[in-house]
Design goal:
heterodimer; A: Alpha-Beta Plaits; 2 domains; 6-stranded mixed beta sheet; 10 helices; 28% strand; B: mainly alpha; D-Maltodextrin-Binding Protein, domain 2; 4-stranded mixed beta sheet; 4 strands; elongated
Chain lengths: 306, 438
């Protein structure tokens, strides 16, 4: 059974269609990543799953039920902006959030998570003295202390240093290992690629990608060449069959015209400079994202409208 | 329901645990009671320096009496009989021979002496003072001092002068004031409370003398207390909700509770804060008043009503302020909504005095039946007026109950719409639309 089933949901705010005819199934026990540019409708979708907003049309079923008008204690939700009472002590606010969800053994869970996140020394400090990263970890704990079966995280990794991001990533995977379904939104394509069983991309309120990473990549085929050469990007200008060059500095990524023979391109590059490494690959999620939502795509869209 | 309770508990503890609440619990009554206390303290701390008063007696009839009366008074009141300590000023009368040739110069000279503090004041008694009806100008008694209008001595000096004048007038008719000592006795009308039957013994109660304290202070203390309860329990919800909205706490809480549960929890928390403070004040106040031997002044019959009104007022106004808070995005918006939001609480405070003086007037009755004003105004009328028709407080409570339900309903709808709506400035039109359309 799917934990979340979204059927043809549309949500309009005034003139803006925030979510447009979205259909989505989130399988139980999966980690589902929502990607998309700012303002594309990710947060609205998450809030609708949380039953904070109601869809204008369509239906959302969570745990097989429509939750219209009720709140559920089986979902943990971490909003994008941190919402903590500044003058409360860390332990008190975590217990409050846990008890508000009717969690069991909230005290024990709070202490366990505080220790796991290395925050035990801060348990009796007020929220206002925490750093941003610490507050974010506290917010995460507040989301999961009630042991929800579905965890929804809006931009959980934003603003965390690599060490804390790792701790959080492990925590999310641990939740999954214990049977929870996790949905999170992110701007970090690496995180989405590495952590998610499924990825949804929303662009301007519409679903543009949905599936496993490899199924998404398969839609684009192996049309990407990754190269390391002596001369870098300067040696790659105007090669026939190359649509686009993404320059990462030490490494360049070439996107081929569909159906073009990659061997010809390599031969051309080798005639110009010395090649250190060469890889024929499927496009990265980052590249796919840019293809859909990048400046080129926007220009193309504007041209088609004009 | 459990969630309402949990939100309320957090709200309650967050408020009650702060130093501000504990200090406020002590400071607020001090502020209200402090001025009264200060008056009592400073009343006993009179200036004990002797006061020299010059009297220019152009009638030649009264100066001697004034001097004698002052001397008699000085013997009686200046020194404490037991300790011998000086407890008040002596009045020293200096008799000045009137300079009829140049009255103005004499007045100037005496005024200068008052300015240099050599004299406290000077009194000029007109030549025709014995028979003032025929001579309004020549019969004046003029009291010259730095703040003559407020000076207690002015009324003191009137008494011996007029006493002597009456005595002289009587003598002219041939009566002897010495044999008719009670000629000028004055009997005041005592203010009495109404007599009632003792419900236990069935006996007719002993008439009780009522005082200004009873007539004014008791009816004033209760509405002041009610005002404080509203300020403590309901008004802070405006800023509280605004903060929860602007700091995105609302979104977290709404992930766990329905908007109505959230708002109800806030209101119940505010109510608990008010009832805590009310209980502390009432218990402490009643104990203090009984300690002072003024137990008769405690309006016990009003106390249950006080708690009923507090409960309904906090629910009614709490829902209003929570809804107002939910439409604000930042403190400045909350600030600008605070003033119009306070109007329902301020109006009853503005009309306190007319309502206390005439609690039975149509004006007082009508205002006290308006739900927003009922908690304060009906309370005053119940304290001040024993004969208030029984239906009126009940009608007030019914009105408040209906209004509280309306406020909670409409406030809940506004709250639900506005609490997640960032960046939309508060507009009356929006609020009405949300309240009506949902």
């Amino acid at each position: 059974m799917d934990t979340v089933e979204i059927r043809r949901v549309t949500k309009v705010f005034g003139d803006l269609t925030a979510v447009n005819d979205l259909t989505l199934n989130v399988p139980r026990g999966s980690v589902y990543g929502f990607i998309g540019p700012n303002g594309s409708g990710k947060t609205t979708t998450l809030r609708m799953i949380m039953n904070i907003y109601y869809p204008d049309t369509g239906s959302i079923r969570v745990f097989g039920e429509e939750l219209h008008g009720t709140s559920t204690d089986r979902i943990g939700y971490m909003p994008e902006e941190r919402g903590l009472y500044k003058r409360m002590k860390v332990r008190d606010i975590l217990r409050f959030y846990g008890e508000l969800k009717n969690g069991t053994d909230v005290k024990g869970e709070v202490d366990r998570w505080l220790e796991k996140f290395d925050l035990t020394d801060w348990a009796n400090k007020k929220v206002e003295v925490l750093s941003k990263g610490m507050a974010q970890k506290v917010q995460f704990i507040g989301t999961v202390v009630s042991r929800p079966e579905l965890v929804i995280l809006d931009e959980p990794f934003t603003g965390l240093d690599p060490v804390n991001a790792d701790v959080l990533r492990e925590a999310v995977l641990e939740l999954q290992a214990h049977g929870a379904t996790v949905i999170f939104s992110t701007h970090d394509m690496n995180v989405a690629e590495n952590m998610c069983d499924f990825i949804l991309m929303i662009f301007k309120g519409r679903k543009v990608l949905d599936g496993t990473l490899s199924s998404i990549q398969d839609q684009y085929g192996s049309d990407t060449i990754r190269l390391r050469t002596d001369d870098g990007a300067s040696a790659l200008e105007s090669i026939e069959g190359v649509e686009r060059i993404t320059n990462f500095g030490k490494m360049q990524e070439l996107r081929m015209t569909a159906g073009y023979d990659p061997q010809k391109i390599v031969a051309e590059v080798m005639s110009r400079t010395r090649v250190h490494s060469f890889e024929l690959a499927r496009p990265s999620l980052n590249d796919i994202f840019v293809r859909i939502a990048g400046p080129e795509a926007r220009e193309a869209e504007e041209a088609s409208h004009a | 329901m459990l969630k309402v309770f949990r939100i309320a508990k957090r709200e309650y503890l967050a408020t009650v645990r702060t130093k501000g609440f504990i200090i406020g619990l002590v400071v607020a009554p001090l502020l209200f009671g402090g001025s009264a206390l200060a008056m009592i303290i400073f009343e006993n701390r009179v200036d004990t320096r002797d006061k020299v008063i010059a009297i220019v007696d152009r009638s030649g009839l009264v100066a001697r009496t004034v001097v004698e009366t002052a001397e008699a008074r000085n013997v009686r009141t200046v020194y404490d009989e037991e300790s011998g300590e000086k407890v008040g000023p002596a009045y020293l009368i200096e008799v000045i021979v009137p300079d009829d040739a140049d009255l103005d110069a004499q007045r100037l000279e005496l005024s200068e002496r008052v300015r240099t503090n050599e004299l406290h004041a000077f009194v000029e008694v007109g030549p025709g003072v014995l028979h003032p009806r025929g001579d309004p100008v020549g019969s004046r008694i003029d009291y010259y001092a730095k703040s003559a209008a407020l000076d207690d001595l002015r009324s003191w000096v009137e008494r011996p002068i007029n006493g002597e004048l009456r005595s002289l007038r009587l003598q002219e008719t041939g009566a002897d004031p010495v044999t008719h000592e009670d000629m000028f006795d004055w009997v005041s009308a005592s203010p009495m409370g109404l007599v009632s039957l003792d419900p236990e013994t069935g006996e007719i109660g002993v008439p009780r003398r009522s005082s200004e304290a009873e007539a004014l202070i008791a009816p004033l203390v209760m509405p002041m207390l009610m005002f404080m309860m509203i300020m403590m329990g309901a008004v802070p919800l405006l800023n509280g909700v605004m903060e929860e909205k602007s700091q995105r706490i609302a979104e977290v809480v709404l992930g766990s509770a329905k908007p109505f549960e959230f708002m109800a929890g806030k209101v119940v928390g505010g109510l608990a804060v008010s009832l805590t403070a009310a209980t502390v004040y009432i218990v402490a106040g009643v104990l203090a008043v009984r300690q002072m031997g003024l137990a008769d002044y405690v309006p016990y019959h009003v106390l249950p009503w006080f708690f009923i009104y507090t409960l309904l007022a906090i629910v009614m106004l709490g829902a209003l302020y929570a809804a107002l808070g939910s439409v604000c995005n930042d403190p400045s918006e909350a600030q600008s909504l605070m003033l119009p939001g306070m109007i329902p609480v301020m109006i009853p405070m503005f009309v306190l005095v007319p309502v206390i003086k005439e609690p039975e007037s149509t004006f007082a009755t009508a205002l006290s039946l308006f739900p927003f004003f009922t908690p304060i105004l009906m309370l005053i009328r119940q304290t001040a007026l024993e004969t208030l028709p029984v239906w009126q407080p009940w009608a007030g409570v019914l009105g408040m109950l209906l209004f509280a339900m309306l406020m909670v309903w409409a406030g809940g709808r506004i709250f639900r719409m506005a609490i997640l709506m960032q960046g939309t400035p508060p507009k009356l039109g929006n609020m009405l639309r949300w309240a009506i359309k949902g």
